[in-house]
Amino acid sequence: MSCCLEQERHLPVTIQLQLPISSFQLHPMSVRLLTTILILITAVGAVLAVAFKKTPTQNRGIKIVTTTYPLYIFSKNIAGENADVKNLLPNGVGPHEYAPTPSDIVALAEADIVVKSGVHLDDWLTPLLDATPSKTRTIIDASEFVTLLYAEQDSPETPTGSYDPHWWLNPVNTIAAVSGIGEILTQKDPAHAELYQANAAAYQEKLKKLDDRLRVKLKDAPKNLITFHPAFIYFVGRYGLKQLAVVEPSPGKDPTPQYLAELMSVIRANKVTTIFSEPQFSPRVMEVLAKDLQLSVRTLDPLETGPDVADAYQNIMWTNAAAILDADAQ
């Protein structure tokens, strides 16, 4: 865990930026530069706005900003109604497609706690934090509480020799992260320590029951899985399965013809009958493979996006297990 601490003053200031950049034809490099400048200027405005005024939501409890969907769900379960929890990634947008908005900058400037996934998944957060300095804001790196595994696939996202960032797909890791986040919330807001501790304990109990059910359910599941991208090392490792290969080793980039040929050989050699797509990615490549090799396609969800409901983690993990067993039944 790392913390940044800074005292902020409060006076009423509002800064708005309205630049008709859509009317210009700019070189892509110029667009990126202009976007960066706008973000930084907006960040300065956000910091000044926070520094010079009392926000109308300051009595709603502690303010928490999360970088990814799983952390949002975990933090909501721990904090309950006592906190204003905001996730930076909009629903349906994964960490690979995220672009910060002015409202995100404001949220970071006002945050009491920022919870990030770590393992380089949210490195984009660093310049935003630098642009919104605060001596009272606490930064929680949830990956520091969990057991990390090395990536098995060689890709820009998780090259060989680095850790896989999808640690929450093992419920044991999630239980540990909930414990760590809960501890820091109690330190940051001791007046509500009992509430946070009770909420964290209740949520951990649900997660333990989920893990027990998954171990029983997946005991006789098919062992070799072909997944869409390298995200399920923690899940298969926990339940005695194997991520045999992936369809798209680099997020957002179609596999090369040579890679697809090798993948098809692996599928045939292991008599795989089902491949697994993901809800936030295009199924085009999966459909081509399925047609050529007469495979069925099911969905495994890495929990990068999802609904704003308390039991979302349990529901999605259970649905993933059902998809694996459904594939085996075909």
Protein described:
Helices cover 43% and strands 11% of the residues. The chain is built from ten helices and nine strands. β4 (113-116), α4 and β5 form a beta-alpha-beta unit. The protein has helices at residues 28-51, 69-79, 102-110, 125-131, 171-188, 193-217, 233-238, 257-269, 284-293, 312-329, and strands spanning 2-3, 62-66, 83-87, 113-116, 138-141, 224-227, 242-246, 274-277, 296-299. The longest helix has 25 residues, at 193-217. With 330 residues, the chain is an alpha/beta fold. The strands form two sheets. Strands 1-5-4-2-3 form a five-stranded mixed beta sheet, with helices on both faces. A four-stranded parallel beta sheet has the order 7-6-8-9, sandwiched between helices. α2 (69-79) packs across α5 (171-188) and α5 runs antiparallel to α6 (193-217). It has a domain at 219-329: Nitrogenase molybdenum iron protein domain (Rossmann fold, 3-Layer(aba) Sandwich), CATH 3.40.50. The model is unreliable at 1-37, 46-59 and 154-159 (pLDDT under 50). The radius of gyration is 22 Å and the shape is globular.
